[in-house]
Write a structure and sequence with these properties.
- By secondary structure, the chain is mainly beta.
- 9% of the residues lie in helices and 48% in strands.
- The N and C termini lie far apart (70 Å).
- The C terminus is likely disordered.
């Protein structure tokens, strides 16, 4: 009898332990699901100028910098500044005016990392004809923008382009461009500053990660912000766009296209037509911040979307629902179910085209052509 009683106690204890383990697992799993904030972050290496030489240059003709160091630049230049060195270079712009009618105004052909510090009012303009060196400021290296001054950039191509990573720490940047205003082949991180963009193409673009932590950003562009992984943690962002306001798309294989919003105050105004306020060719996670979108389609995503926090105001109405405009206005998919507006052609040799709206979650009219090839069209209102 005692053995039987002990056996029952042991079994009961095991069941309790197993149940507790299952509970802990699912609680942990739920927390993981609800916490979509990622560890993805754009990084730019740091430069050291402790033992660097300092040079003071008054610009009056094109120059080539072939030695690492800090260069304090002032004056007016019709031409270009070229950097070609193995080391780190800091260009301190103290009220410069640089104009190049035949290429980049600042061209970094080679460097480990380049800092551009803006003090006072500075102006750069460029007319680009080279498809390779295609920015008013062009670098093959990582680039850091910093300072307390203002930099005005005008370009018939890209405004600032780097083949590496870019970090914007502070400063004011007014960029007018026919191409992308800021274009990074790798990642872009914005930690502060004021950025005003007028672009006929993309406003901010990074092929890898585009991360905004702070700053005041105003973008008028065809496409406002674009990257493979777009992560917004803070800042005040205003976008007027005629294509997509924020777009995550396949620019690199390093990440699944994702838009992740954890904070900030984001206002998006979209033009009419086939446009999306936030468009992700992969995932869409909204965990915080305030998002205000005015437009025909607020969201478009291909994989999954999750809302865990923050404030969303769509066309004047507050909501906690992430709607989906899938396929450029042709309806959408939600958990594998097609939504109204999709067109389907019968899989077997039935004559004529058959337009169908599935019975589940359908909207609008349903037009069907009989399989016998007759020309009669039957319209069914749902």
């Amino acid at each position: 009898m005692d053995n039987k009683k002990n056996l029952i106690i042991i079994i009961f204890s095991l069941v309790v332990l197993l149940g507790a383990g299952i509970l802990v697992y699912f609680l942990s799993k739920d927390n993981t699901v609800n916490n979509n904030a990622s560890n993805v972050s754009a990084e730019v290496q740091e430069a050291s100028f402790d033992n660097s030489d300092e040079y003071y240059i008054t610009l009056d003709k094109s120059i080539t910098i072939s030695k690492a160091g800090v260069y304090y630049l002032s004056g007016t230049l019709d031409g270009s500044i070229t950097v070609n060195t193995d080391g780190d270079v800091k260009l301190v712009l103290n009220g410069v005016s640089i104009k190049n009618s035949n290429g980049a105004a600042i061209n970094v052909e080679k460097a480990n990392i380049v800092y551009i510090e803006v003090n006072g009012d500075n102006t750069i303009s460029a007319t680009i004809s080279d498809e390779e060196v295609d920015g008013a400021i062009f670098t093959v290296s990582d680039l850091v923008l910093t300072g307390s001054g203002t930099l005005n950039i005008t370009s018939n191509s890209n405004g600032i382009k780097t083949k590496g990573n870019m970090l914007i720490e502070n400063g004011t940047y007014n960029i007018t461009s026919d191409g992308d205003s800021i274009h990074c082949n790798d990642s872009l991180k914005i930690n502060g500053g004021t950025i005003n963009i007028e672009s006929k193409d993309d406003g901010l673009r990074a092929n890898d990660i585009l991360e905004i932590n702070d700053g005041n950003i105003t973008v008028n562009a065809t496409e406002g912000i674009e990257g493979t992984y777009v992560k917004i943690n803070g800042g005040t962002i205003s976008i007027n766009a005629s294509d997509d306001g924020i777009n995550a798309t396949n620019k690199t294989d390093n990440y699944t296209p994702t838009v992740e919003i954890n904070g900030g105050n984001i206002t998006i105004k979209m033009a009419q037509g086939d446009t999306d306020g936030i468009d992700s060719n992969g995932n869409l996670y909204i965990n915080g911040g305030t998002i205000t979108i005015d437009g025909q389609s607020a969201f478009d995503y291909d994989l999954e979307a999750k809302y865990t926090g923050g404030k969303m105001i769509i066309n004047g109405e507050e909501t906690t629902t992430i709607t989906n405009q899938f396929g450029g206005g042709m309806g959408g998919m939600n958990n594998g179910a097609m939504r109204g507006g999709q067109q389907m052609t019968p899989p077997s040799g039935e004559e004529g085209n058959q337009q169908m709206t599935p019975p589940d979650n359908s909207n609008g009219n349903q037009q069907m052509t009989p399989p016998d090839g007759s020309n009669n069209t039957r319209t069914k209102k749902r």
